[in-house]
Write a structure and sequence with these properties.
With about 325 residues, the chain is of the alpha/beta class. It is built from 11 helices and 12 strands. It has 2 domains: about 230 residues, P-loop containing nucleotide triphosphate hydrolases (Rossmann fold); about 70 residues, no CATH class. An 8-stranded mixed sheet has the order 6-7-8-3-9-10-12-11, sandwiched between helices. The protein has a 4-stranded antiparallel sheet with strand order 2-1-4-5, with helices on one face. Strand 11 and strand 12 form a beta hairpin. Helix 4 packs across helix 5. Bound molecules: adenosine-5'-diphosphate (ADP) and magnesium ion (MG). Magnesium ion binds next to helix 1.
Length: about 325
């Protein structure tokens, strides 16, 4: 997938939120891409744009999203409906709001399958649901239960199963473990890694938790203020962050190995995207800000196999 010059706006009463601002981005088939950054940086908006699921008044105002060469931005609604679920699936933070409390788990699977696969019998659909539960490490008996009867971790597994039942090749997971406790979170990430291999998935893992991406991601994209700050191999980013924002993010995570006496925190907070700073959006918080950073927005440049938007790197 290639994203070119994508901008997404939310026109609201006090002005326009520039949630995604001229983003260029590329995903490789079969990779796990971690998408990280503080809250309010535009991560979810970027994820939702890919499925054209922006909440009103969100609007894609410019750019292309090329999926296997076809532009999602300009696709007719009918083709978008085909794409959702069948080719691209998305899972969210809170599975309880996505599962219908009145439906048993098997009904969720059966309805999804029958809606997309013409000619499938209910019996075959049930069988497929059973197989999916097995591959999620859940007893197929749970199919006859209702969402509220399951634990949070199990509900999130069910959600991912529903996301994968139609055989998509891209999975967008938006903060999928935020509602889970740490043990269940670790198990869920293991499962995700396992499913990724088994189904040859490309995954976008959106998270504000750098520990999650360290465990799972092949590459990492760091987003700040609606723009991409840095893209690189996960190992490279953790070992040698180049963008001052990435450096700040990494310095603020607890590291038991380093035995740090005190956590460094980045001063300030992410920008107001209705009235973002001139030039580089990060300059008001950047310890290295120069004159040019206040006036001109840096573009993405290649440096040491990394993409980076920062005037320190030209
Ligand atoms: N439905 C909406 N209406 C207005 N503004 C929104 C809406 N959704 C998101 N935004 C704004 O868009 C910006 C990016 O939000 P979001 O994509 O949710 O960031 P993240 O996922 O990184 O936390 C924020 O300033 C947020 O307030
Ligand atoms: Mg979000």
């Amino acid at each position: 997938m290639e994203i070119e010059h994508l901008s997404v706006h939310f026109p609201i009463n006090i002005g326009t939120v520039r949630a995604v601002d001229d983003v260029n981005w590329e995903l490789r088939q079969g990779e796990v891409m971690g998408l990280v950054g503080e809250s309010g940086c535009g991560k979810s908006t970027l994820g939702f744009s890919i499925l054209r699921l922006l909440r009103p008044p969100g609007k894609i105002v410019q750019g292309r999203i090329l999926y296997k060469g076809r532009d999602i931005v300009r696709m007719p609604e009918r083709e978008i409906l085909e794409l959702r679920g069948k080719r691209i699936a998305m899972i969210f933070q809170d599975p309880l709001t996505s599962l219908n409390p009145l439906f048993r788990i098997d009904q969720h699977f059966i309805e999804t399958l029958l809606a997309h696969e013409k000619g499938l019998t209910r019996k075959d659909a049930y069988r497929r649901a059973e197989e999916m539960l097995e591959s999620l490490g859940i007893s197929p008996e749970k199919l006859t239960e209702y969402p509220h009867q399951l634990s949070g971790g199990m509900r999130q597994r069910i959600m991912i199963g529903l996301g994968l039942i139609l055989g998509p090749d891209l999975l967008i997971a938006d903060e999928p473990t935020t509602a889970l406790d740490v043990i269940v979170e670790a198990q869920f990430l293991d499962l995700l890694a396992d499913l990724q291999k088994r189904y040859h998935l490309t995954i976008i893992l959106i998270t504000h938790n750098l520990g999650n991406v360290a465990q799972l991601a092949d590459r990492i994209t760091v987003m700040y203020g609606g723009s991409i700050a840095e893209v690189g191999e996960a190992g490279d980013i953790f070992e040698n962050p180049l963008h001052p924002y990435t450096q700040g993010l990494l310095a603020s995570i607890p590291n038991i190995k380093l035995d740090q006496p005190k956590l460094k925190t980045m001063p300030g907070s992410p920008p107001d995207l209705v009235d973002p700073p001139q030039g580089c959006v990060f300059h008001p918080r950047c310890p290295h800000a120069m004159e040019v950073c206040r006036v001109k927005k840096p573009g993405l440049v290649k440096r040491n196999g990394r993409l980076i938007s920062c005037w320190l790197y030209g």
